[in-house]
Structure formats: C-alpha cells, structure tokens
Amino acid sequence: MKRALWTSCVLLLCAGLAGAGQPVAYKSGADTATGYLARPAGDGPFPAVVVIQEWWGLNDWVKQQADALAKEGYVALAADLYRGQVTSSPDEAHQLMSGLSQDRALGDLKAAWAHLQSRKDVKKDRIGVVGWCLGGRYALLLATEQPELKAAVAYYGAPPTDPAAIARIQARVLGNYGADDQGPSPAAVREFEAAMKKAGKSIDVKIYEGAPHAFANENNPWGGYRKDAAADAWQRTLAFFDASLKGPMKSGGPAKK
Q1: Number of domains in the chain
Q2: Is 180 annotated as catalytic?
Q3: What is the per-residue pLDDT across 98-129, written as a single tens digit (0 to 9) for each?
Q4: Is 133 a catalytic residue?
C-alpha cells in the first residue's frame, strides 16, 4: 500500500513538472473561448503575454513557449483559435487556417487580453503579444485593434499594409523573419518596417540569412529549423519583453533608428 502511494506521488510530481500551465476558459462575446495559461510562482502581479499559435493549432510546442515565458516571469495565455482542433498535417492545417474567421479570431484574442487584464496576478498596463506564422500575423493585427497593448512580437507573420491600420498601432513591435521566406517575403517585411518608421512607430526587425519560414520551431516538417537563428530570435524576444513590459513604461514611438 505504501509503495503504491509513493509511486502515485512520484507520478503526480513528474506530471506537475512536465508543464506549468493549465486549461482556462473565458468569455468571447456570446461564446466561450479556451486556452492554456502558464504563470510564474508567487502572487504577482506580473506582466503578461498573449501567445498565438501557428497554423497547426494549440499544440504542445505552443504550450511549451507559454511555459518558457512563465519561467521568465510572465503570465502567458495561449489562445486556442481553432477551439480544440490540432493537426500535424500541412493539408489539414491549411484547411483549418482557411476556415478561421478573422473576426472570430480577433474577438478571441481581444477576449484573451481582457481575461489577462481581469486577473489579480497581472499588471493591467503591462500586457504584450507574441505569435508565430499565423500567430505572427494575428499578433500584428491585434496591435492594430488593441491600443492598450504594450508590445507585439511577430515571428514570420504577414504584416499589415494599410496605412490607416499601421497608424493605429501603439505597441512597440519586434519582428523576427527569415531571408529565405516568401510568405511574407523580406521585401514585404522591409516595406512594413519603413511604413512603421514613417508613421513614427517603434519597430525592430531582424531578417535571418539562410532561415526559411518557421525557422524557430524544431518540429518544422520541411527541415526549416535553424538552431542559431531560433536561439537568437528568442533572446531578442525576451530582451524586448523585459524592456517593454518590465522596465520603465515606454510608448510606441518614436521609431527605433
């Protein structure tokens, strides 16, 4: 009996160490949205980050990014834009992404932001967003729609092109892109960077030579993972969030030179 109890305790301890987060539900309009919430130890309040999935859905890799942010001192909420659907098939991922309503996705992301703001363990004026691929695009879109957002990090996400949308961005923006990517292309990224600077916004973009799309994910099915670029982009992300969400309050402008 004692041996069985000891074994159960060890299994529970190992399960607790495997992932710091837990499922969470919150209102998104008339619907209920869900996500994965990871938080630091202690009462807080802490800065927070909305985490946005790739086109595969809210899979283990995205949850691991939320866990990693929690270890750095952030309450991290990974929104489940597909509401329970996850795939490892590129064809299915394309179908899921194509079937995702932009209005619903933005609604769920705004609801995730609002949920973080409602929490006692979150600093309400220190919330950022990070996303990869599909999530990188939506991180930038959220910045055009949520003026109280303080920082936005986009990994190879298609940037907005409408000058009016860019003018609405108040968050500081960090971009991590691949030179061998065509979706978006380096030229499109540089055009966005120029438009942001012209509008007096804060932006820091790095384009990694030899890096294709999704270079930061070691599970990249096309062999596109680039270890050095991924590590550098992650350190840039952490430094950016530390400066934007933990340091003295900064606004979205002027543009970084």
Answers
A1: 1
A2: no
A3: 999 999 999 999 999 999 999 999 999 999 99
A4: yes
